[in-house]
Each structure stands twice: as structure tokens, then as C-alpha cells.
Amino acid sequence: MLLSARPASADTVTVTVGDLGEALESSRFEPDAIRRLLLDEIQQRLNELDLSLAENALLLQDEITDRVVEDGCTSTVISNMTTSVTLEGDTGIAIGLESLFDPVELSLRVAAQVSAIGRAQQIFGFRLGNCVEVASDRFDFSAVGPLDLQLDLSIQLNPEWLAQGTLRFSPAVELTGELFESDISVDVDDSLLRGVLESFLQDEVDDLFSIGRLQTELTDLQASLNSSLTTDGFLDIELPESDDQQIMALFELLTPQARFPLTTEFLNENRLEIIAALIVEDDDRIDEILTNAALCEVTTVLQADLPVPAAYQWVDGSCVMADQNSEATRFTDSNCSLPFDYFPTSFANFCATALESQRLGNAESNSVELQRWSLSPATRFDISALPLEGKTQPYVQRVNYKNVQGAEGNCALEMRVYTDNPTGQNRKALIAFHGGSWQNRGTGFLGIENMATQFVDQGFVVFSPFYRLIHDSDGTPACHNASFEQLLDDIDDAFKWVQLNSELYGASGKPVVFGQSAGGHLAAYVSVHRASEVERAVLFYPPTDFTDFGGQIIRGEYTNQTGINIMTRVTGVEPSELDLQSSVVVDNTFPAMVAVAPEEFPPMFMLHGESDSLLPSRQSVRMCNGLAGDVENGPAPYDFNTSSTARSFACDARGSQLHLIAEGEHTLDLCISDELCAAGSPASAAATADAIERMLSWTSADSLAAAADSDSGGGSVSLWLMALLTGLIFMLQRLSIRNSMVSFGSSEFEGPQIRDQHRLR
């Protein structure tokens, strides 16, 4: 079963205007740069709406002059009137969501003070052809008193399975309200007709704030909301083409038994953004917050129950086992003599970072957490062909390793460090480069964090840097649209940073480098251009030969538009203008470089799927043959394997290996369940798990065998599974809020995606 039924356990969280006031007041001290920008935007929106916060209360003010209230021979003219409505600081908004098959519930309890003060003129007359004024009287008036009411909004999405490949949503809004108190009293001064005017104005006020008027207004507003949700009254989502197995899996995910509750923790973490978005009517932000919550919550089913490294703390003068959920100084030894700075990372906090492209990899986000240790939920995601069973969850620390000033501001690049012991020694260093087509972070970093747990278990300290991107779909604007050369400069600087700082984390010796997809290219780049400084290289489905890949595109032998688009962004030219002698192509054609003197380069372990439709496995074949000294006629064949699940080859006499998985697609090492792996069949997935185990032993071995091991196999996220996940994401994203979450199978993204990747067991 893909997703076990979970009992309904929706939590309701109440947020207040006072919370928002405190946050805006202290926004300049907010350590999270993205949250600080959001609060600034909220303040700007409040200013645009003439809303302000004073003493933790939201104040709406309005002023009118020379307004005719009654137009006739006998009339009233308001010379001036100032009206204010103050929401008390404890005015609260309650939010609850249990499932996509249950309504989204929003409840606003309004506790307000209404105050209207002004001066008016009463004109008395009669009609004799034209109006003849008999008398007039000027007077001051006021209307002051409390207003207490509750508004309840319920949004039902009504998901319906129309046919294979099509989901229909028929959203409906129900808006109700209850008036608890309306005691606004009117007072008129200095008027000959004071009693009459007070009675008249009081009747008008009572009518304005009556339960009948409230119900009328709510009915009209409900009708308006329902008519504006969709033009035709429904929204159809066309899912990518897929096979019957995918459709049935998706259908199972959409059953009412599949619950995605918003936890109290998540709502508390995001309460200020929610109430602010509601106040300024930022519907997109509300949808984004709720969508992110549901997306992140569903990933809890992917987590392995891993033990954590032993840690201690002082309690009442004794050194005892530490509580991992509290923030305090920790110690790695039972004598409490080896301290490290620790803070807990909640699942909600992880979601807020992983699902926000401008937070992930941005060292300015939550800067107070830099150089402190924590336990990230991402390192427990059991999404690999090789399960995490038997491993220990590593600690992780964020570090700002580089700043780049540009026209868009500062690109603050983050390095993450993973270890089993923050005060440990005698570890080996490994640098892991994330994939994502060199243009995305979230799409590749989850795979890195998963593998970090495996590598730490082998005695490594893992260093994983973020870098500038060649596109603008991910990261902060300051890190967007870098040239490929600038991106590689970041990789060089990250490598140097590790060399200078690895001993601070107990690691020594030349580092091993690792990468998946585009990250595999970066690991190969470092291995080739800094060969004497690298111990070994692990390359999973890497682009290694830009000349060969570009030649295939020019000759029409490669037609995958996704890969062509990626190459266009890397080189900056269309395929028809591609120059195979350009520096960006030549400098990233590694097999030819290596073949000249293979002994000068570190040993390499490569894993690639022979059914990889995004990046042909010949990229790894050519690299293996280059290590043997003959790119075209080395030990690895260019033919397709039709006789076995997997095969492996010794590339050289120094231990370099190539493992090919016949059924393997791109990102074959990541796997959502036994039945849902891009490696193909369960047998192929098992072969991939075996290859990864061999890689871990190869990476950590003191010396390497002269020849490759016997056959290996593969596994990961298949194209039809990618489409399945995309369908789930689009379903959760009402009205397709986030366009960046696209189908793996048809997108320009590669590698696992933090926002989209869900392993369901």
C-alpha cells in the first residue's frame, strides 16, 4: 500500500493581531532575511490600505468632508467626520485543515471598538416650486461603542476523478457569521432637535450593525466568492501521460483516507504570515502557505526512524542524556567536557526552508542558526534504493562560505556540514555537490542529504556547498543567471574552503568528491582540474563529455528537448550555433583530458542507467574508457545491454569502476518505494542497491582493488512516478499556485526535488 490511512487529527491554531504587531515592530531585528522582506512587504501593504498598527491594535481610519446624507428640502450635511475601527490585540484568526477531502476552515473573531466623531448641519425647509430653507442647525455628534462578531469561512475543494489523466475540482465557499455584541451609542450635542436626531442616527447605526444586515452582506460576499473561484464553476487538471499503474497509484493517494493534516507546529511557525496575508487579502500567499503545509506534511511518511548520536547536558549538577527537542549546550561525552552548540529543527522549520526557494542555500536566511548544530529531518528521508535501516541520523551545521556582491545584492552561499560527532576526530572529508541542471537547488539537494547519512555512517564528514545558478527559477535574485564560469568559480572556492576548514570538523586528508547528475559533473570537474588534490570521485549519472553531447545534438542523434534546453542555458547559444571548440565545451570534455595521462587522475566510481532518456549512459562509458587511456575503444562498451539486469567494468588498474543498470532511468539511485523506482523492476532496484553498497565500501576502503566487482544493479524514481508526484502536487496547489513545481518527466529539472519528492511505503 502506498500510503497508509491516517486518522483525522486536524489541529486548529489561533493567531492574533497582537502577534503581527510585535513581529512588525521587531522586523528590523529579524534574523531570517526572507522573513524580514516579507514583513516589510506586509508593512507596505498595510500602508497602502491606510491600515496601521498602534499598541498592538489594527487601526482603520477614514475621514469625510461635506457629505450630503439626506438630499431634499430637509437634509443633513456632514461637514466633517473621522471614523476609526480598532481591532483589539487579542483579535484572533483560527485556521484548521484536515484533508483535501475536508473543508479548509478559517475563523475570524472580531473584537473591535468603533468610533465616529464629527460635525454636521441640519437644514429644514419646504418645497414651494423650489426648496425654501426655513432654518438650519449645526451640531456635533459621535457614535462610539464595541463590536463583537465572528466570521467563519469554509472552502471545499470537492476533488473528483473524471477519467484517466484528469482531475476536477469544484471549489465552493460557505461564509457564515454571528453577531455577539453591537452596542454603539449615538450622542448629539448643541442641537435644537437633539432627541430627534439622536433617534434617527441610532436607528441608522443599529441597522448598519444588525444581524440581519450582517447576514445579507455575507450572503452577497459568498455569492461573489463562489462566482470568482473559477469561470465555469470547476477546474480541470490534466495529468501527464502515464500508464495504468501510475493512475491507480495516484487514485489511491487521492482517496479520502489519505490525510494530510496541518500540524499545530506548522501553523504556529507560520502564524504571522497567515494572519498578515488574511488582513491584506493576499490570497496567493494564503494558498502558498496552505499548499506548502500539505506538501511538507505528506513527506513525514517518507522518514525512517533513525537513532540519533548520543548527546549529554548538565541538569541539576549532573551530566545526563540530553533531550534532543530542547535548546541548550550539548556535550558529546558522558563527562560533559566536549561541548557543542545545538538547537532543535522542527519538521515545520524544515518545511519552511525546503519549500521556500529563497531560503534554501541562502546563508542570510535564519542567520542566527549559522555555525550551530542541529538534526535535520531531511537526513531521515528514506528515499534511496539503499534503505537507511541501521544508520544513525547525523548532525548538520550551516556555514556561510562565500559572499558575492552584484547588481541584485549579496549572494550569500551556504555550506552544509554533516557528521556523527561535532567534536569528533579522525574522520575523512567528502564533498557532495547537488544536482538540478546547474539551475535549481531544491531539485537536487534532497538526494545529497539522503546520501549524507550513508556517507557519515562510513566515517566521513560531508561538506555540501550551494552555488550560484545559471537560471532564475530558484534561489535569491542575487544568485540568479550566473555564467557557467561563475558557477565553477563557486565550486573552486567551496573546495578551497573545505581544504582550509575540514580539520575544524575533525576531518583530514584529501577529500573524496561526490555528485548526482549535474552534481556528478561538478565532482568530475574538480577531479580533473584539481586532480592531485582529490582522493577519489563518485559520479552518479554525470555529464562528463560536453563535446560528445553537443555533437549528438548537432547531428540530431539526441532529441530530448529538456536536455537540449539545459545545454542551451549552459553554453548560452542555441543548438544551431553551438561551437564544439568553445571554451565552455572544451573545458568540460573530461574523457579526452583524462585519456592523455590516466594515472594522474584520482580513481572514479560511476553509476548510470542505460535507459537514461535525459543523459545517455555513454557519458559515463566515455569517462570510464578515458580512465583506461582510450575513449573510443576502452573496456566499457557502447552497445545496449539486452541480456542482464546490470553489468560492471574495471576502467583501469587503480580501482576505477563503471556500473550500468539496463533498466535504469535518470536519478536511478533514488527510490520512492519497492514498486516505484526509476531503476525499473524490483530486481533492477535491488541491483542498484547492491551497486550503492559497493560504492560505499569502495569509497571508504583504505586501498582499492585492481578490478571492478561483479555485476551490479539499479533503482530510482521512474518517469511515470515523476508524473504521479506531479499530479499530487498540482492537486495540492489549488489553481496551480506555484508554477515552478512541474513534472519531472517533462521539466528541465533533474535529480530529486525537495518540494515534490514523496516516497510512499
Give an account of the 3D structure:
This protein is α+β, with helices and mostly antiparallel strands and 761 residues long. It folds into 2 domains: 53-251, no CATH class; 344-732, Rossmann fold, CATH 3.40.50. Helices cover 30% and strands 28% of the residues. The chain contains 19 helices and 28 strands. The strands form 6 sheets. Strands 17-18-19-21-20-22-23-24-26-25 form a 10-stranded mixed sheet, with helices on both faces. Strands 1, 2, 3, 4, 5, 6, 7, 10 and 11 form a 9-stranded antiparallel sheet that branches. Strands 8-9-12 form a 3-stranded antiparallel sheet, covered by helices on one side. Strand 6 (104-128) and strand 7 (130-156) form a beta hairpin. It is elongated, with a radius of gyration of 32 Å. The model is unreliable at 1-10, 242-262 and 706-761 (pLDDT under 50).
Short description:
The chain has 761 residues and is of the alpha+beta class. It folds into 2 domains: 53-251, no CATH class; 344-732, Rossmann fold. The model is unreliable at 1-10, 242-262 and 706-761 (pLDDT under 50).
Q: And the CATH topology of the largest domain?
A: Rossmann fold
Q: How many strands in all? A: 28
For the report, how would you describe the main beta sheet? 10 strands, mixed
Order of strands, widest sheet: 17-18-19-21-20-22-23-24-26-25
- Percent in strands: 25-35%
Mean pLDDT reading: 79
Q: Regarding CATH, which class of the largest domain? A: Alpha Beta
- Please, how many helices? 19
- What do we call the CATH homologous superfamily of the largest domain? Alpha/Beta hydrolase fold, catalytic domain
N-C termini distance: 7 Å
